[in-house]
Design a protein that fits this description.
The chain contains 22 helices and 28 strands. By secondary structure, the chain is an alpha/beta fold. Among the domains are: 145 residues, no CATH class; 155 residues, Rossmann fold; 230 residues, Spore Coat Polysaccharide Biosynthesis Protein SpsA, Chain A (Alpha-Beta Complex), CATH 3.90.550.10. The chain starts with a helix and ends with a strand. One of its GO terms (molecular function) is glucuronyl-galactosyl-proteoglycan 4-alpha-N-acetylglucosaminyltransferase activity. Its EC number is 2.4.1.223. Keywords: Coiled coil, Disulfide bond, Endoplasmic reticulum, Glycoprotein, Glycosyltransferase, Golgi apparatus, Manganese, Membrane, Metal-binding, Signal-anchor, Transferase, Transmembrane, Transmembrane helix.
Length: 916
């Protein structure tokens, strides 16, 4: 028992000890792992706090002392860089979040604005629709509905008009069938072939060929006789060698009645007798012409039907054109002789005229002997010559007198000899026939023609003579008409005329000769124009140059140059872009011939009624002496008044709405052209841009043209010519043209100011670069000068406004030698235009603003930089003076600037009137 218990105790003690040891070991491990670190941390912290911040061993060190350690310097730099980048990124993120928020707000605002604008637009469309509807209703109520009248042609077998009381009583109202010539007919004219009637083969070949050539080029001639308004029959002049083949009056009447469209009485027929000699056959004397009118140079009083028959001028230049270089200049006004006369009085002269009962033309004249005024004229003129007060030349006997009619003064010698005398004569006497019954003679017509051709002022002695086209031409403005009883006062009268009056008469005579008598085409045109004017049928529209467009691709929307668009306080025009609209068409074609016939025929520097009307015919002011193809200019006054703002909004003038067309000539400078077109973006009142592509090489296929919001028409030309700048392109639909070079630099405010000025001076060239001409005393010639001066006489068309009407005159009326010289030198087209406008208006151009230069600074070198450029322009000026016969350019010291030029004022206080 004891051994077992002792054994148990002995055996249990080691187990207990082992548990105690384990417990103690666990406690020690727990103490070491938990309390010892705490005690160590506390101890170490106490040491750092006791030693102060400067003697810390384990705590953080101030001032980045840790980074001073070599092994952590790189890590510190990386940490700092990353920290800065993180701060910057955070700032950017916040900024972008704010921008997104603001843009979202703007998007919402724009959406609301778009919705509001759509509503406003819808309302405006409704208002516009209602306004248009109201306007149409108002127009329908107050204006009648007009349409072109229906043309009623008479039947082919027309019975004719009621016969007149006598052949002498024929007038347009009684012998002309107006039914064949409605206002809208276009005045078709049918011309008989000279081979269709017997005596046509005996007509002078030169006259026949000249007449045929003129007919071929006339715009009114038609091949359809059924629609013709007028029928022309060439009856003479017969050849001198065919006098035996001249039919008798009865035979001639039968042949006339046999014409296919004579219709029993010959109404609407004109029998034309053109003569090249002073002695002409009066074929139609004692011939009953029925209702057919007669147009010839010689008329007896019993034969001539006033207001129905026509006195025409002789056909001197049959197939030849006058040489302008051989015509003497119009200045100096006074020439060697004060007046000249060479002639021999013919009392009785046997001619080839018919002597048939009751009396021939020759017998009718010889039956009335001339008055004794001719003897008094001879004595008076010889007394003036013998007095030696003035140098005159009078000869009353001829070595070689030309055949002439009885009782008239025969021409002396050959035409060349007579012209040499007239070239040194201030006045040329034209003595009417002694027989008062001879109301018109070819001899007087020949003297009148030769005098006006060389610039000699005709002096007609005898107021009973009927001059060519006296119903339409006011001869008193080109010739002096004196009754024969005043021959004793003739010398005093001629001496009393001033130089200005003589120069004006000389210019007017040159115009009449050049326009109506100089060539066979002009003779025929004048004949037809006089008849058309008498029956009040308007002229046909003048042709325009068709613009053959070159296809081109438009690029991106053009921007606006800040330098060009910065106009300060000046209001150029409407902010919104107005759609292009053309100038109003001429509306007086059907009344103009009746209202302004006399003024039109006498003051025109261009052929009125010979050439047709222009499609943009403006209205002729009563005080203007500017006429041409039936056109003139609207009298444009000042603005609408009020403050400057109202004036600018109205653009000045009396035309409320008007635009202009830019015509830009270019040649193989694509980049320069694109820049110039882009500068026109946003220009107010611009209708379109017409680019005249003067190069035979087309534009590049990949060339992108700027989109300026308006049409850009690229016109292909037939040849490289500077005259193409002034062709009347049909693409130009406005009266105002801004001719501008492709390298010209003009601000929008300058262009608009020039446009305002032009609207108040529509008959002038208004532009920017000024030039002048000067007389070289040493070389006795004219010089072109481009130096800056206080006066000018030309404005270059490289940047200038002008009326489209001048494009018609330049291309169709101006003498062809001028255009030929422009093509020869590839120069001087601007000088030619200045000559033309000054010649027509007798006014100088107008320069606006004080800009000295307008060329592109970085563009390729222009032709004007060549030294030969100025030498060619010297030659051009002198050549143009020879063609015109005088120097038409006029000096001026006038320049137009805004009243407040370079002055900045509030917007509503600005005014834009002009001053000198």
């Amino acid at each position: 028992m004891q051994r077992s218990g002792g054994g148990l105790g002995a055996s249990g003690q080691p187990w207990v000890l082992r548990r105690v040891r384990l417990t103690w070991l666990s406690f020690m491990l727990f103490f070491i792992l938990v309390f010892f670190p705490l005690i160590a941390h506390y101890y170490l912290t106490t040491i750092d706090e006791a030693g102060g911040p400067e003697k810390r061993i384990f705590g953080p060190r101030p001032g980045g002392e840790l980074c001073e350690a070599k092994h952590v310097q790189d890590l510190c730099r990386i940490r700092e860089s990353v920290s800065e980048e993180l701060l910057q990124l955070e700032a950017k993120r916040q900024e972008l979040n704010g921008e997104i928020t603001r843009l979202n707000l703007r998007i919402e605002a724009c959406k609301r604005s778009i919705d509001s604008a759509k509503q406003d637009l819808l309302q405006l469309k409704n208002v516009i629709s209602q306004t248009e509807h109201s306007y149409k209703e108002l127009m329908a109520q107050n204006q009648p509905k007009l349409s072109l009248p229906v043309r009623l042609l008479p039947d082919k077998e027309d019975p004719g008009l009621p016969p007149p009381k006598s052949a002498r009583s024929c007038r347009l109202r009684s012998c002309f069938d107006y039914a064949r010539c409605p206002l809208t007919s276009g005045f078709p004219v049918y011309v008989y072939d000279t081979g269709s009637y017997t005596w046509g083969n005996y007509i002078d070949p030169l006259v026949r060929q000249a007449f045929a050539a003129a007919v071929k080029s006339n715009i009114y001639v038609t091949d359809n006789p059924n629609i013709a308004c007028l029928y022309l029959v060439l009856v003479g002049e017969l050849q001198e060698s065919s006098s035996s083949a001249v039919p008798s009056p009865s035979e001639l009447e039968k042949q006339l009645k046999a014409l296919p469209y004579w219709r029993s009485d010959g109404h609407n027929h004109v029998l034309v007798h053109l003569t090249r000699r002073s002695m002409t056959q009066n074929l139609l004397y004692n011939v009953s012409t029925g209702r057919a009118a007669v147009a010839q140079s010689t008329f007896l009083e019993q034969q001539y039907r006033e207001g129905f028959d026509l006195v025409v001028s002789p056909l001197v230049h049959a197939l030849s054109e006058p040489n302008f270089l051989e015509i003497p200049p119009q200045v100096p006004v006074k020439r060697k002789y004060l007046f000249t006369f060479q002639g021999e009085r013919v009392e009785s002269l046997k001619s080839s005229l018919q002597e048939v009962p009751p009396q021939s033309f020759e017998e009718e004249i010889e039956g009335n002997p001339p008055a004794d005024y001719d003897d008094r004229i001879i004595g008076t003129l010889k007394a003036v010559q013998d007095s030696h007060l003035d140098q005159v030349l009078v000869e009353f006997t001829c070595k070689n007198p030309q055949p002439s009619l009885p009782t008239e003064w025969a021409l002396c010698g050959e035409r060349e000899d007579r012209m040499e005398v007239l070239k040194v004569s201030t006045f040329a006497l034209v003595i009417s026939p002694g027989d008062g019954q001879l109301v018109a003679s070819a001899g007087c017509g020949m003297r009148l023609f030769e005098a006006m051709e060389v610039g000699t002022i005709p002096v007609v002695l005898g107021d009973h003579s009927t001059l060519p086209y006296h119903q339409f031409i006011r001869w008193s403005e080109a010739a002096i008409i004196v009754p024969k009883p005043r021959v004793t006062e003739l010398h005093f009268l001629l001496r009393s005329l001033s130089d200005n009056d003589m120069l004006a008469m000389r210019r007017q005579g040159r115009f009449l000769w050049e326009t109506y008598f100089s060539t066979s085409e002009n003779v025929l045109n004048t004949l037809l124009a006089s008849i058309r004017t008498s029956i009040q049928v308007p002229a046909a529209a003048i042709k325009e140059e068709p613009a053959h467009e070159i296809p081109h691709k438009a690029g991106k929307l053009a921007g606006t140059d800040a330098n060009l668009a910065d106009n300060g306080d000046l209001d150029l025009g409407p902010v919104e872009t107005e759609p292009p609209y053309a100038s109003p068409r001429f509306l007086r074609n059907f009344t103009y011939t009746a209202a302004d016939t006399y003024r039109a025929w006498n003051h025109a520097p261009g052929p009125f009624h010979l050439f047709p009307h222009t499609p943009l015919d403006p209205v002729l002011p009563s005080e203007a002496k500017f006429l041409g193809s039936g056109t003139g200019f609207r009298p444009i006054g000042g603005g609408t008044g009020g403050s400057g703002k109202e004036f600018q909004a109205a653009l000045g003038g009396n035309v409320p709405r008007e635009q202009f067309t830019v015509v830009m000539l270019t040649y193989e400078r694509e980049e320069v052209l694109m820049n110039s077109l882009e500068r026109l973006n946003g220009l107010p009142y611009l209708n379109k841009v017409v680019v005249v592509w003067n190069s035979p090489k087309p534009p590049s296929d990949d060339l992108l043209w700027p989109d300026i919001g308006l049409p850009v028409v690229v016109v292909r030309t037939e040849k490289n010519s500077l005259n193409n700048r002034f062709l009347p392109w049909d693409a130009v639909e406005t009266e105002a043209i801004l001719s501008i070079d492709d390298d010209a630099h003009l601000r929008h405010d300058e262009i608009m100011f020039g446009f305002r000025v032009w609207r108040e001076a529509r008959d002038r060239i208004v532009g920017f670069p000024g030039r002048y001409h000067a007389w070289d005393i040493n070389h006795q010639s004219w010089l072109y000068n481009s130096n800056y001066s206080c006066e000018l006489s030309m404005v270059l068309t490289g940047a200038a406004f002008f009326h489209k009407y001048y494009a018609y005159l330049y291309s169709y009326v101006m003498p062809q030698p001028i255009r030929d010289m422009v093509d020869e030198y590839i120069n001087c087209e601007d000088i030619a235009m200045n000559f033309l406008v000054s010649h027509i208006t007798r006014k100088p151009p107008i320069k606006v603003t004080s800009r000295w230069t307008f060329r592109c600074p970085g563009c390729p070198q222009a032709l004007s930089h060549d030294d030969s450029h100025f030498h060619e322009r010297h030659k051009c000026i002198n050549f143009f003076v020879k063609v015109y016969g005088y120097m038409p350019l006029l000096y001026t010291q006038f320049r137009v600037d805004s009243v407040l030029f370079k002055t900045r004022l509030p917007h509503d206080k600005t005014k834009c009137f002009k001053f000198i």
